[in-house]
Specification:
single chain; 5 domains; OB fold (Dihydrolipoamide Acetyltransferase, E2P); five-stranded mixed beta barrel; DNA-binding; alpha+beta; eleven-stranded mixed sheet
DNA sequence: TTAGGTTTAG
């Protein structure tokens, strides 16, 4: 019997046992018979105090009464439970509970003649592979909100993790973990938890996780309430992500967890989504900067002792640190880990030196395990014998800011993602990258006397390339200026100047139906529309339909806003937040932004009497990632919101903005760069418009306004195309296609030009 | 007992 799980179910008549398991009647129990695929079911009618056997094993005895044949003499039986199971059962079993056991040993009962019970008793233990299921009639736990805690009480509570220190070796005899919780009462509680076994402390992996503590003692300390472990303390930890499976993390094999508690977790998740900032200092090695603290999720490749107060961990996360990194010198014999792997990954692993209180835990880590190392410090330093500075990674002593090491289990979603990424890493590639970007390469290259400067390179090669029509010959600008429109030309010219100089002003919204262009609305207008629509209370009659689940709550601030979130259901085995579309009523701009970080799509809506509807089209009708999608006021004819359910019904809805717009009757406005390039070639000059969604700059116009990295990239590209402060002779050449077209109005006629099928050269961006 | 969040200084 491989199952060792003990669980409480409520109002569940069928035990979650495999189909091949059969219920055994007490009267058929006999010593020596095969009971491998049988289970016994009964009611707990008596239990004895938990005791220890001479060898220290926990021992717990109960009496079970069979449900059938109540008059039979052998209707009750002694169950002897050993070890961890004994301890767990003693904690939660109550008289009257329904008890199911499988994987038991049937032994002749030495006390049958005295107690008049069954001639055999059952022996049950984890070691024997027993499984126990308990259906409890009893304990209904009461959970205290954090703003109602009183000094000297022992309580049960739920909270969202706002801060935590992963279990570390305390100066006493136990492991310690410090956890700060918050809940919708907006009160914080810092708990100090001790246990000799770190596995018995809450398995918290990140801020935002949700915990349930049972029997935590509340004390006043420095004028504030504080939680501390008391006898019988138990915890469950849950992923705090809305939509993630509600699976408790716990070391206990026995816990109560019912539908009601399931609901509590879901509600806390939704609350936390808009109230807890989880943007922690996590980083990939490729993104580290000198002089910062960050959390790293990684795999342990090697470890070595260094000296009494420090210990070396060699880890990787599949990405490459952009700076030269330090190597901590250790004796080859002291380095643990697969030699071949250590060599293969030598350009991707980094050395992390851990100090003091972290050494003991670091020593115990298994090679290959997945770790989250919290608050690693990066420091730039140059050794005496080197002229380059290298990045050092330190995990300093102490536990400030949650500094420490956590081991993540393989079923952790972040680990799964990391594993998939590590599998995709091409080691050959990383080794080439290393040789190309290494300090050594630079020093060799600089010895080349004919090493070309950027300027020379750009004077020789065009900085833009054509994506089509390669057969066309170049036409001089003078010829173009003297020709009639419309025509298409290939040109070679220099970019003398461009407008707008402030690049963010080049982004507009374009309607491809009516061909109108408009400015991108600023956040303020959106904010006002949200404030106006927050006045309309969510209509509860529109909640929880066939195609969405709704959650509603009232904010704790003085405004007491009602917020409703409707999660659109779709037909997936497991609905993940990153694939989920939600609609929100009554949220603020900030709350909506926070939701977009976690969910695939957010649609702001308001209630009418009989349906949800989109807000004014001056507001975005959809937010996805960093992008706000708008509809054309002229061309849109909004349709009922329930049309979304047709997309939700797809196997794996991709939630494409174009598709969402279509079913909602919205004519989607597209983000576009509009710029005017003044091009010259020595024979003439033309002003050509650039009208580009993404192709020219290889930057989506939709993302530039919210992404400073892309803004920098675009500015750098323009500086390459048109380096500021250069003479005309020193400007690089552009190869472009332009087309001429006629623009006529009542007063005059003119010829305009537009750039097309042209992109910035790959090595420029 | 231990720690009681708010960065080491190697």
């Amino acid at each position: 019997m491989p199952v060792q799980l003990l669980k409480i179910m409520k109002e569940q008549s069928e035990a979650p046992l495999p189909n091949h398991m059969q219920k055994e009647d007490l009267k058929h129990l006999q010593e020596g018979c095969d009971h491998t695929n049988k289970y016994i079911q009964g009611i707990v009618v008596l239990s004895y105090p938990l005791t220890k056997l001479r060898d220290g094993t926990d021992f717990f005895k109960i009496v079970l009464q069979g449900l059938d044949d109540l008059c039979s003499r052998i209707n009750s039986i002694n169950i002897l439970i050993y070890g961890k199971m004994a301890e767990d059962c003693a904690k939660i079993l109550r008289h009257g509970d329904t008890f199911i056991v499988a994987g038991f040993k049937v032994i002749k009962s030495p006390t049958a003649s005295e107690d008049g019970r069954h001639g055999c008793h059952l022996e049950v233990s984890e070691e024997a592979g027993s499984a126990i299921y308990v259906s409890s009639i009893a304990p209904k736990y009461v959970y205290t909100p954090l703003n109602q805690l009183k000094d000297g009480t022992i309580v049960n509570l739920y909270g969202v993790v706002k801060f935590f220190k992963p279990p570390y070796v305390s100066k006493g005899t136990d492991y310690c973990s410090v956890v700060t919780l918050v809940d919708p009462s907006n009160v914080k509680l810092t708990c100090t938890l001790f246990n000799g076994n770190p596995d018995c402390l809450p398995k918290i992996y990140k801020v935002g996780d949700i915990v349930r503590f049972h029997r935590i003692k509340i004390r006043e300390y420095n004028g504030q309430m504080q939680g501390i472990t008391s006898g019988g303390f138990a915890s469950l930890t849950f992923d705090g992500t809305v939509g993630a499976p509600v699976v408790p993390r716990t070391s206990s094999k026995m816990y109560t967890f019912m539908d009601e508690e399931h609901k509590t977790i879901e509600e806390l998740r939704v609350w936390a989504a808009s109230n807890i900032s989880i943007s922690g200092p996590a980083a990939k090695l490729s993104a580290v900067q000198p002089m910062l603290f960050f959390d790293l999720t990684c795999q342990l490749v090697g470890k070595a002792k260094v000296d009494g107060s420090s210990f070396l961990l060699k880890v990787w996360d599949g990405t490459k640190c952009p700076y030269p990194t330090w190597r901590v010198p250790v004796e080859a014999k002291d380095l643990e880990g697969e030699k071949v792997l250590l060599h293969q990954l030598r350009n991707l692993t980094v050395d992390i030196l851990v100090y003091d209180n972290h050494v003991q835990l670091a020593k115990s880590l298994k090679i290959g395990s997945f770790l989250r190392i919290y608050s690693i410090h990066t420091k730039q330093a140059s050794a005496d014998n080197e002229d380059v500075s290298r990045i050092e990674f330190h995990l300093h002593g102490g536990t400030c800011y949650g500094r420490g090491i956590g081991v993540l289990p393989e079923n952790n979603p972040d680990v799964k993602e990391l594993q998939a990424f590590l599998r995709s890493v091409d080691l050959a590639d990383s080794q080439n990258m290393e040789s190309m970007s290494s300090v050594e390469f630079n020093s060799i290259s600089s010895d080349f006397t004919d090493f070309e400067s950027d300027l020379e390179r750009f004077q020789r090669l065009p900085v833009t390339v054509l994506t089509d029509h390669q057969d066309l010959n170049n036409t001089e600008l003078k010829t173009i200026m003297n020709s009639t429109a419309p025509q298409q030309y290939r040109i070679r010219a220099k970019l003398r100047t461009y407008k707008p100089q402030k690049l963010h002003q080049s982004v507009k919204l374009h309607c491809s139906k009516c061909n109108s262009l408009q400015e991108v609305p600023d956040g303020e207008e959106f904010n006002l529309i949200l404030q106006r629509s927050a006045v309309i209370a969510p209509n509860p009659e529109l909640h929880n339909t066939l195609w969405y689940d709704s959650v509603m709550w009232t904010t704790q601030d003085e405004k007491q806003r009602n917020i409703a979130i409707h999660f659109v259901k779709h037909d997936e085995m497991l609905q993940r937040p990153e694939n989920t579309l939600l609609m929100i009523e009554g949220g603020t701009l900030k709350e909506i932004w926070k939701l977009t970080k976690r969910f695939k799509c957010v649609i702001p809506v308001r209630s009418t009497e009989d349906d949800l509807e989109l807000l004014d089209l001056s507001a975005p009708f959809l937010l996805q990632g960093n992008v706000k999608y708008y509809g054309c006021k002229q061309c849109s004819a909004p349709k009922p919101i329930k049309n979304l359910s047709s997309i939700a019904a797809e196997q794996e809805p991709s939630w494409e903005p174009t598709e969402i717009a279509q079913v909602l009757g919205i004519e989607l406005l597209q983000y576009v760069f509009i710029m005017k390039f003044t091009l010259v070639d020595g024979t003439g000059a033309v002003n050509a418009y650039l009208f580009d969604y993404e192709k020219f700059f290889q930057i989506p116009a939709s993302e530039i306004l919210t992404n400073s990295f892309l803004q920098e990239k675009m500015q750098m590209t323009m500086n390459m195309l048109c380096p500021p402060g250069r003479k005309l002779d020193d400007l690089p050449w552009l190869e472009c296609f332009i087309k001429s077209y006629n623009v006529r109005d009542a007063m005059k006629h003119r010829v305009c030009y537009q750039i097309f099928d042209t992109t910035v050269a790959e090595d420029v961006v």
